[in-house]
Amino acid sequence: MTAGAFLQIRDVVKDFGGHRAVNNVSLDIQKGEIFALLGSSGCGKTTLLRMLGGFETPTSGSILLDGRDLAGLPPYERPLNMMFQSYALFPHLSVWENIAFGLKRDKLPAAQVAERVDAMLKLVQLGKFAQRKPHQLSGGQQQRVALARSLAKKPQLLLLDEPLGALDKKLREETQIELVNIIEEVGVTCVMVTHDQEEAMTMASRIAVMSEGRLLQVGPPGEIYETPATRFVADFIGNVNLMDGRLTVDEPDHAQVGCADCTHHVGHGITGTEGMPVTVALRPEKIRIGREAIAAPGDAPPQFNRVRGTIKDMSYFGSYTVYHLQLASGQILKVSTSNAERHREHPLTWGEEAWASWSPTSPVVLTQ
Amino acid sequence: MSAVRSNRALGKFAVIGVPYVWLLIFFLLPFLIIVKISVSEMGAVSVNDLITYKDGVLSLSPRLGNYATVVRDELYFDTYLSSLKYAAVTTVLCLVIGYPFAYFMARARATVQPALLMLVMLPFWTSFLLRVYAWKGLLTEHGWLFDLITASGLDRPLAAANLIPAPGQLMNTPFSLVLGMTYMYLPFMILPLYSNLSKMDLRLLEAASDLGATAWVAFWKITVPLSKAGIIAGSMLVFIPCVGEYVVPELLGGPQTQMIGRTLWDEFFSNNDWPIASTVAVVMILLIIVPLALFNKYQAEATEARS
User: Looking at CA atoms only, how far is residue A105 from chain B in angstroms?
Assistant: First the structure.
């Protein structure tokens, strides 16, 4: 950990009664980062965010923002602002008054308040709606008002609680990019909480995966997806095939894992002992499927990294298709293929036998 | 199919119609009779002298003399004014006492809220009259509360504020009247406020706090404006019956606290002047209809704003 990180979370613990919601979390977040806390509901991510906002007090541990300990500061004295889940816009105030609320609390002169509110309205392109009440706006517009309100006071840190959770899927995708653009334009450091991995992946520069109050893995989206550290992370982020097996060969430049249906040949060494139980994680899009027993790509010996099965199910998603291949042991192997061509001659179909194969760089060997 | 539909229409009509018929027979009809009496003179009991149908012309000849009397006579005017005053004071007191009560009830742990609600409702389980009599017992000389107030010297500021005529006299004063009415009507203030405040989204207060508002500022800028509908509903529920209140002024009020409910009683049953009594009643209803109409207008606007 670097000493001078902008936001430092040190050994933070939060107990509710007998339940430990946040368990010894330490995190360093740099200035200008968009950082996502990702996890399913009840994993402690929201509690952690609320401790940053000052709505919960840590049982132990400390939180430092720009070198200053936030302990004992009530929310209204913290140099940060939060965009609440489903926005918490004041229903009796107009858009303009909602954005001005925080500025007025700072006792700014009226002219300065007006100037800042107008600038915020321009930033989120809601100038026309200044006099509307929140209930007269669409979900997307409300989200932008909430963003403008939380940015109006020029916070050092912006907290986003499920920023897009209240929007429908199509709008969410558009808004993700728009939101990141605005945050980057303002240049504010941002910590967001989400249970939606796609949202975390597209928006955040770094992600922390949380489960049962602990941080499981922290890293950029690509790293979390391609090299998950644990079985939980691999399973939580994206689609994955998990195959249990034993480490049979462990050389510096390659390793082999024997599973029920096949043997995995991995192009790097594992820090483990031969014979230990491990799990192999294999992403569906990294597997090729075909009628013929093609040799696995890469430099793996031909008998490894391939398996035969029966197509039990096919899910067509438009841009790709997922095949559910039942292997000899009964395990289902998910394989996804991109539908690059509009029509394929003799496409694979239900009940057919097919071969799946993958390269030595594809499997990830998980020891925990 | 059509039989089913007509059955359903009939059922719908019955459900909506029964209360309407009830109000028609037991409210509108008697009210019209009162209106009729108010535009008659003593002794005139027939409709015939009010409405005449002669040579194909229907003519109404109401006697508005009673209204002129009621409006001109200072005694009635002062009584109306004093009714409005005591109703207003009671409403404000109920709001001042009831708001914090409702607020803390709504913010109490969910498990104790039903018990608190029960405590507010509990007085309704005993007779209204009995409770007013109980106050009489507390406030008359050497009553429990009387002793407490006189011993602590609280009666002197009360006398200075002209709420009691002299120290040592608590019963049958403006003080005892307002105390009694506030006590009686407090639940009608608390219940709508509680139901309003308990529905409030507490994250709005967190958002206010996040934006720099202290708890005090958040209360005045967020909680109070958002509970406006509850404040108005509670105030109406207290103010309207208080204007025409009869029992409390009769038992706890005094010569200083003439209220319209008592005047009404006196005119009907002591003076037996039904036309004047009916006029007083009609004017009272008009007085109450104005705030009620304003309230309905506000509610309609609020409903429109929400949709």
Answer: 6
Examine the domain organization and report whether B164 and B31 are in the same domain: no
Domain count, chain B: 2
If we measure between CA atoms, which residue out of A142, A148, A135 comes closest to residue A167? A142
Q: Across chain B, where does the E strand assignment appear?
A: 51-54, 57-60
SS3 B122: helix
CA distance A7 to A27: 8
ipTM rounded to 2 decimals: 0.84
* Domain encompassing residue B172: 73-306
Helix (H, G, I), strand (E, B), or coil: what is residue A125? Answer: coil
Which residue of chain A is at minimal alpha-carbon distance from B207?
A88
Asked if residues B66 and B276 have their Cβ atoms less than 8 Å apart, the reply is yes
Searching chain B, which residue's CA lies closest to the CA of residue A75? Answer: B210
Domain edge (last residue) among A232, A255, A282: A232
Of B226, B233, B236, B234, nearest to B197 (Cα)?
Answer: B226
DSSP A230: S
* Beta carbons of B210 and A82 less than 8 Å apart: yes
Q: Which of A83, A87, A9, A88 shows the shortest CA–CA distance to A44? A: A9
- Model pLDDT for residues A85-140, shown as the tens digit of each residue: 989 999 999 999 999 999 999 999 999 999 999 999 999 999 999 999 999 999 99
Same domain, B237 and B258: yes
- Structure tokens given for B178: 């307002």
Q: What is the pLDDT of residues B150-204, one digit of tens each?
A: 888 888 888 888 888 888 888 888 999 999 999 999 999 999 999 999 999 999 9
- CB within 8 Å: B206 and A84: yes
**A162: containing domain:** 7-232
| pLDDT given at position B305 | 63
pLDDT value of residue B68: 85
Cβ A199 vs Cβ A164: under 8 Å: yes
How many beta carbons lie within 10 A of that of residue A230, not counting itself? 17
- pLDDT for the residue numbered A1: 44
Its pTM surpasses 0.90: no
The answer to which of A244-253, B47-56, B118-127, B294-303 has the lowest mean pLDDT is: B47-56
| A84 with B226: Cβ contact below 8 A | no
Spatial distance between the Cα atoms of B152 and B192, rounded to a whole number of angstroms: 35
Per-residue model confidence as pLDDT tens digits over A85-96: 989 999 999 999
Q: How far apart are CA B220 and CA B227, in angstroms?
A: 10
CA distance A210 to chain B (A): 24
